[in-house]
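Lecture 7 notes. Example A: sequence first, then its structure tokens.
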Amino acid sequence: MKTLALSRPIAALRLLALLALPCTVLAAENPPSGDAARGATIAATCQGCHGAHGEGVPATGGPRLAGQTAEYLATQLHNYSDGRRTNPIMSAIAKGLDAQKQADVAAFFAAQSAPYAARSVQPTPEQLARGRLLTRVGDESKQLQACANCHGPDGSGEPYATPYLAGQSAVYIASAIREWKTGARPSGALMGPVAQRLDDQDIAALSAYFESLGDNAH
């Protein structure tokens, strides 16, 4: 399989992801250890958008949280509470949780292994083929490296660096890419430029492909 001549070595890209992406665990300094049992009580308020066990609600774009690393999840809550990320619902919830409660609810969802929710889109074979290409190889004509360079093989994730995407809601993935593309979501050094190079067809293909991997994830 052809690899992009313009791509940096994978090890260097993963290091850059650790240092630059807003989704890394570096945003919160010395976070407390979480307790999943305590987090279960807090997580009850999250069920409407993320499902009872973090399986997500694809129809409304509620992302899947089950099995994401606790460090990643706690960092997202920290980013919402200090304004690095903004969302009318999540910002208000996160600001009502201190660092310990954020760590506890993150630990709860990280410990879940919920079944994958029903797909929110029905992709065409052409979309799946395009999504697979962008994920595994990239597109040299658009100066796009493979998504796998940062998010692991077929979106399986890289612990302590980037979240898994396999099985994630297509509605959520498409929405997140568009937010990076417009600047509505902090992009760090990588996702903003990547999103700018993706057209609507690429966004639809990638989001559908990653969602289709749910049954085979992890």
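Example B, a different protein, same format:
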Amino acid sequence: MKTTVNLNDRLLERAKRAAAREGKTLTAFLEEALSARLAPKPSAAERFELVLPTMRGTRRPAVDVADRSALLDFLDANE
């Protein structure tokens, strides 16, 4: 469908340049922009909270994880 729309000159120039950069026609660019603007907004999702289980060990760790060199040595030895 053809229609006439009055656009701000600067806005139209920006749209033309953006369409050209993306290798699209101005019509395709404007259709995509309007579709995105008119798309339904997703409802506010509940905040997700990740809860990781923690367990108490019965022995001390085999390596100090803060010591990078010792950690890498431990990982290499246990491959």
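Note on Example B: Residues 1-50 form one domain. The mean pLDDT is 89.
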